[in-house]
Design goal:
Layout lengths: L25 E7 L16 E3 L15 H10 L5 E7 L11 H6 L4 H4 L6 E4 L7 H11 L3 E4 L5 H8 L7 E4 L3 E3 L2 E3 L1 H15 L14 E4 L13 H6 L5 E5 L3 E5 L16 H17 L10 H20 L5 E6 L6 H5 L5 E6 L26
Parallel strand pairs: 1-3, 1-4, 5-6
Antiparallel strand pairs: 2-3, 7-8, 7-9, 10-11, 12-13
Helix pairs in contact: 1-6
């Protein structure tokens, strides 16, 4: 209308936007829906399915004879995460087979079909798990992969460990004993990472947490807080996370570093640091949808920067990060780049590293003897 004689209000969508934190205690498991390689229901092969601890596994289509049932039960006995199960196996009645690699690739569908993206990836058969595929998908999802390292003793474990270098892998070993039977450590570690997220926060390391259902390990492991030659320290020093047990202390997860250590060093070798960075980057990227395709102007730039700063201030207040901040750098945003629809917002932060090594300095100071007095 060319002429309007009156008053109107236009809603202006500007200012600081709320950035939400994504769910982290979500485990993705690829598993056969059958007792062997044959699928008992080919119709669900390759499709992500949400499994929750609030209902029995039987009610959610799993059978106790299946390895994936054992894996998920092991997890739910320790923690209460969401589990995204992707069935794979052989279609005996047709040609709709789904391989383990295809099931792992299907983890990427979960966000759009279920609303959750798995952040901890495992399989029902760690012995034959395709590590390269797991790492590939983990990098795309910003997830981590608890990975079993196998060996009959410490030396064998270290020898097997030599080929692992991926930052997304979290090496664990040996197998653990639960309910009188050996189970894969990766199943237990997946549960303990989820447990730590729920009880303490994703910025905490899953190390030094009691595994309440664990009764022992595949073979004995010496553990000590002070002896650098103890098995626990020898394994940790080579990037293998293991089990720590002491009298009346329970069986504890023990180790902080991902598989890039000790080849790599620095703060990014800590699992908790990587996962905290993943959460922050995921959250800011997901929130950016509301700005995409809007006109680039000062209001939009201010909204982007201040929204990121508000989010990082919140995380600092929660002690998830030590500090952080976002900014707009004109040198990164030249007229040529902006004219092409490209904007660069920079942000920095640092999560708190876990206390892995504590040194006490002890002195016997004979000068303190001067405090002695003679009674009159």
């Amino acid at each position: 209308m060319a002429i309007f004689h009156g008053v109107e209000t236009l809603l202006v969508d500007a200012g600081v936007k709320v950035i939400s934190t994504p769910a982290t205690a979500v485990i993705g498991i690829a598993g056969v829906n059958g007792a062997d390689a044959n699928s008992e229901d080919p119709a669900i092969l390759g499709t992500p399915r949400l499994i929750t601890p609030s209902r029995t596994l039987e009610a959610q289509g799993l059978d106790e004879t299946w390895p994936v049932y054992t894996a998920i039960k092991t997890i739910f006995d320790l923690a209460s995460p969401l589990v995204i199960w992707v069935p794979y196996g052989v279609d005996q009645a047709g040609d709709d087979d789904v391989t383990l690699e295809e099931a792992i690739e299907a983890f990427r569908l979960a966000r759009n079909t279920i609303g959750y993206s798995p952040k901890i990836l495992i399989t029902d058969d760690p012995e034959s798990a395709p590590r390269a595929k797991l790492v590939e998908v983990a990098e795309k999802l910003r997830a981590v992969v608890p990975t079993d390292v196998q060996g009959a003793d410490v030396q064998a474990l270290l020898t097997a460990r030599s080929t692992f270098t991926a930052e997304r892998e979290f090496l664990v070993g040996p197998k653990l004993v639960v309910g009188g039977a050996e189970v894969w450590f990766s199943w237990v570690m997946a549960a303990m990472i989820a447990y730590t997220d729920a009880e303490y926060g994703y910025h905490y390391s899953p190390s030094n947490k009691v595994m309440t259902t664990v009764e022992g390990s595949e073979w004995p492991i010496t553990a000590s807080l002070t002896d650098q030659t103890a098995d626990t320290n020898v394994l940790n020093a080579q990037g293998v996370n293991t089990v720590y047990s002491g009298y009346a202390q329970g069986y504890r997860t023990w180790g902080n570093r991902n598989a890039s250590f000790p080849t790599a060093s620095g703060i990014r070798t800590f699992l908790s640091v990587i996962r905290t960075a993943d959460v922050i980057e995921d959250a800011i990227e997901a929130a950016a949808l509301q700005w995409i395709d809007k006109p680039i102007n000062n209001a939009l730039i201010d909204s982007l920067v201040e929204s990121a700063n508000a989010f990082l201030r919140t995380k600092k207040g929660e002690e998830v990060i030590v500090d952080g901040g976002a900014s707009y750098d004109p040198e990164q945003n030249t007229p040529a780049e902006i004219s092409n629809g490209h904007l660069v917002i920079s942000y920095e932060f640092v999560p708190p590293p876990p206390l892995e090594r504590l040194t006490f300095r002890s002195f016997i100071n004979i000068n303190l003897l001067s405090q002695l007095t003679t009674e009159e």
